[in-house]
Amino acid sequence: AEIDQLEASIAKLTEDISELTKAVAELDAAMSEATTLRLDEKAKNEQTIKDAGEAQTAVAQALTVLKEFYAKAGEATAFIQQQPAAPEIFDAPYKGMQSENGGIIGMLEVIESDFARLEADTTAGEATAQKEYDNFMTDSKV
User: Fold this and answer.
1) Which long-range contacts (CB under 8 A, 24 or more apart) does 115-118 make?
2) Which of 20, 28, 53, 85 is least surrounded, with the fewest CB atoms within 10 Å of its CB?
3) Residue of higher predicted confidence among 99 and 133
4) What is the rounded average pLDDT of the residues 117-141?
C-alpha cells in the first residue's frame, strides 16, 4: 500500500513539474515579448522627444525672425517710391495682420506650446512605461 501511495505521489509530482516547467516557459516568452515591446516603445518615445525639441527650436527661431521683421517693418513705410505723391495705401507703416485672431505669431506660439506639451507628455509616459516594465520584470523573475 505504501508503494502504491509513493508511486501516486511520484506521478503527481512529475505532473506538477511538467506544469511548472510549461508555466516557466510561458513566463519566459512573456518576458521576452515585453522586453521587445518595451525597447520598441522606448525608441519611439525617444524619437518623439527629440523631434518635439527640434520643432520647438525651429518654431522659436521662426518667431524671432517674424518679430524682428515686424519690428523693422513697423518703422518704415512700404515701397517708398520716387513719385510726386505716393498712393494713400503706402502712407502708413506696414504692420502685417498681427492683430487679426492672434495672427501668425499667435499661431506659432500655440504650436510651440503644443510641442512643449507633447515633449512633456511623452517624457512622463516613457517614465511610467519604464516603471511598469521594471515592475513586471521584477514580479516575473523565477
Assistant:
1) 115/52, 115/55, 115/56, 115/59, 116/52, 116/56, 118/48, 118/52
2) 85
3) 133
4) 94
C-alpha cell at 87: 498712393
pTM over 0.70: no
Would you state the cell numbers that stand for residue 72, as one nine-digit string?
A: 523693422
List all residues 6 or more positions away from 62 whose beta carbon is below 8 Å from its beta carbon. Answer: 108
